[in-house]
Amino acid sequence: MHKVKTKSDALHAASYAARWVDHPVPKFRIPSEGMDPDAAYLLVHDELNLDGNPALNLASFVTSWAEPQAERLAAETLGKNMIDQDEYPQTEAIHERVVSMVGRLFHAPPEETPVGTATIGSSEAIMLAMLAHRTSWRNRRKAEGKPIDRPNLVIGADVHTCWEKFTRYFDVEARIAPMKPDDYTLSAADVEARVDENTIAVGGLLGTTFTGQIDDLADIDELLQRIRAERGWHVPFHIDAASGGFLAPFTRPELLWDFRLPSVRSINVSNHKFGLVPPGMGTVVFRDKSDLPDELVFHIDYLGGDMPNYSLNFSRPSSSVILQYYTFLRLGYRGYERIAQAMIDNAEALTDGLLRTGAFIALHDRESFPVVVVRAQDPDELDVFQLSDALRRRGWIIPAYPMPPDAQEVNVLRMVVKESFSRDMVDLLLDDITRELSNGNGRPRTDPHGDVARKIC
Question: Is Nuclease there in the keyword field (predicted)?
């Protein structure tokens, strides 16, 4: 939320010697008169130069580069609203193909009736899946004459913020398994200690935001199958594959994490991450249409025709879906495989370089994901927050943060190696990190009394 600055008189001053902009322009209210389009462009364009450089942004998982042909398709579809299926039937046909391609990549069972939809990122996808599982749980409880006032969701502390948003926004108890100083993922034992007949679902991660690791998905699936057989509790397993859904099928195809696990009833993925399309797009796929209660699907006729809709948002751009279809056609399975392996190789080179400094310990899954997460070998000698600040002065955007409870004493640096981050960029980053370490710019700062002044993030 942003404060509405009702009393601010801040102005854009005239610039370029008044060649285009020859009068002050208000910043926080709509100007009384318009201006030349080139002038408006220059005002916005120049101010955006203060943003970070996407090429040096290792904080974000989101795709920040596209081929010229993809950019052209994005411009051509800028005015098409994804919701207008009657007006743009071919766009909707492409939407269906994309969902089918994603579902088949995740081994959607042909003997059932898998369904899914594109979303505005994984946050909407996860909330839609959890709403479906909450409604299904409530319907089962009503049919059994049991109370429906205490639904809960079992997750690990390694989840993205959107999971906690769901529990808070939709009044579901969050049963969160905390981390440990040397254990950062969700285990079957964690789930067993928290699951009960009021559990609407268990969330497991294929690639965590914090460490790029994988929850114990196969063991959790086995536990949920046993619980159903022994206690009769139907607890769906949802896989949050936001980061790993477009990596594991190509880097570790033998890994069992998707609909090959019997308890998995739904999966989300962020197409705008390693699906290699610009933001914002996600996809949610259900194992069978019975996992999506009919009452959650709205049938809209006031735009022409009957348009079934399952979303939190209504209007949305179509360009990401179009670009995902383009990218699937452009790269094919082998293309994704080559890109994924190249990212893994570059991440491995970055990891090896960091470890050679002797200053770091690696925490991430080095085999599966191009996400490099390190902590200081000796926190008394290296403050990762100070190092992050020093690198920012060189243009690198590398986040430092404490791990969630109960591992909050562990501070880490995370670097996401994307398709556009070449081996040359890896070498340049390692040179800068080595230089900053040599200059002592990662050392903890002390106050005049000798106490370490810790930066609070």
Answer: no
